[in-house]
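Protocol step 4 of 5: obtain the predicted structure for the target chain.
Materials: sequence only (see below). No template structures provided, no constraints applied. The aim of this step is simply to have a reference model before the mutagenesis design in step 5. Sequence pasted as it appears in the construct record:
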Amino acid sequence: MFRLFVFLYALVSAHVGLTVPHVPSWDNMVVKHAWKDVPTGWICHGDAPEGTTINLYFALKANREDALIEALYEVSNPDHERYSTIHPTI
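Step 4 output (structure tokens):
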């Protein structure tokens, strides 16, 4: 149980900024999709001014919301078979 607490503390610490945040690399971006024409029903008002920031928000369908908690309990339990995958020397 103590190891689970330490692991969860590390997750929370990373979230509140007690650790160094991951900085994404912007020099290797590629276009995944582009339209040659304006989609039906849309209106093109021209290009955005240089330096414009567009905030995009995406929602993903939840799938097995409890899977992370289950995995944490499994790798934190010395009696579980997955415990050795995280703690190979114990």
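Step 4 remarks: Residues 2-16 form the longest helix (15 residues). The chain has a mean pLDDT of 76.
Proceed to step 5.
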